[in-house]
Amino acid sequence: xxxxxxxxxxxxxxxxxxDGDKIIHHQEKNDHKLSERIFFMLExxxxxxxxxxxxxxxxxxxxxxxxxxxxxxGLSIAKTFAWQQQIPICALSTFAFYASGYQKDLIISLPDKxxxxxxxxxxxxxxxxxxxxxxxxxxxxxxxxxxxxxxxAEKEPSIDFYKMQKIFAEKEDKVHAIAPNYLKNLGYQKMTxxxxx
Amino acid sequence: xxxxxxLALETSCDETSVAIVKNGYQEIASVIMSQVNxxxxxxxxxxxxxxRTHEKNITWALEKVLTDANLRLKDIDAIxxxxxxxxxxxxxxxxxxxxxLAWLNDIPLVPVHHIAxxxxxxxxxxxxxxxxxxxxxxxxxxxLIYMKEDxxxxxxxxxxxxxxxxxxxxxxxxxxxxxxxxxIIDQRAQKGDDNYDLPYPLDxxxxxxxxxxxxxxxxxxxxxxxxxxxxxxxxxxxxxFQKRIIDVLAKKTIKAMQIYQVNNLVLVGxxxxxxxxxxxxxxxxxxxxxHFIVPKVINCTDNAAxxxxxxxxxxxxxHCFDEKMVAKSVCELTSENE
Lengths: 197, 338
Known about the structure:
The structure holds 2 protein chains of 2 kinds.
Chain A: E1 2-7, E2 12-19, E3 22-29, H1 34-49, E4 58-62, H2 68-85, E5 89-92, H3 94-99, E6 106-111, E7 116-122, E8 128-135, H4 136-142, E9 147-150, H5 161-167
Parallel strand pairs in A: 1-4, 4-5, 6-9
Antiparallel strand pairs in A: 1-2, 2-3, 6-7, 7-8
Chain B: E1 5-10, E2 15-22, E3 26-34, H1 36-40, H2 47-69, E4 78-84, H3 88-105, E5 109-113, H4 114-120, E6 132-137, E7 142-147, E8 154-158, H5 164-174, H6 181-191, H7 212-227, H8 234-260, E9 264-268, H9 275-288, E10 291-293, H10 297-300, H11 304-316
Parallel strand pairs in B: 1-4, 4-5, 6-9, 9-10
Antiparallel strand pairs in B: 1-2, 2-3, 6-7, 7-8
């Protein structure tokens, strides 16, 4: 089984290939040049793993929350890849992805602006307990006993790809139906009669 | 020469489109998923909603086009994609999908300028004669492009502020007529007469256009009439507004053709669907003895077949992506960067 992991949704870019007991993982900070850099990174990881894209058997991709553009870059690539190769695809929460590196329940925050953030409370089994876009302080206040990790402040978050592979081995999504989890409402105002006056 | 099949993606604004074109002119299959319903409630295109809808639709559109064409990806010789100008988040979806396809199938990826695509929509119906003048009019563009030969572009004029389609949308909103504004105003204008005194926008010797002043004039006129307690005759106002726009477009286009000594006019872009504009340019070309080309409405509005048609020539000229190439929200159409 050769498995590709792709995560471009938040503060880091993670690309990993599991090939049996061998794992090639590339991680870097996500900057504004994601769309420029992503294919260089993909090619590097495939070269390091010494396999060809057509040999991949399954793809895991994070579908948010995170940066709207980051989510779409990852999903566009992963969906197209899975669709063309006709291989299974599995969408993972950004929170579950980063929670894999810890052995206990925890809250992961992805800070946005003005003290607000994407907040996720996940179990050590990578199952969701709660998530919302809210004030970071408010969310933390609800679960005072739970360990909190601010992803933005992390230098090199560790990720357990084997754990995800094991937990989500059976999970497959329909490629055309994969929906991003933006978590945040758009806040656009629809036109009303009053605004036309 | 072997047949060349190009698969193209166009996601620069609010249509998710994928098409396959053979040898640059023969449309094999085309899928256009309009997002008008998603944006209608907002009176215009909301960029984030456009990006989200492209993301949702794109693999489905790919599958549909290949099924309709009865082809497989291994039959495709190159991927063409709109790299700009347009909404950056929307462009990015098409670009990432296109890059993935080119990478997995090890075939060339051809970047196409959106305006070049609009012009090459003509080739889907008849081979364009050169030299020619292209009037590109849409929700995002109003440009006069001089083409000496295939894939040579010289922009000789353009809008200094709003695009013509944008002006239509904004005035439709002022008149509470709905969205998109172009077809609605065109329809209402047919029923009205030129009874409102509106200015002719940027009526000078240049080949540039300006429509924001005209829009302000409409705003003021509506306001003043309301103050006086008069009701607006929407049909008449639509007529007067449209007449100013079409007059200035037609006048400057014909003058540009005379000065550049070209006999062929190509009218393309979403606003080329406007029946009054088509009629006016057809008549003026007839009077001057010019050859007038306007594609079918379906080829005038945003679609991927036009990107494939342009991409065919870009490929011949070896304009291919390097991996670093990015989407651009703003970019001029010139022969150099094409």
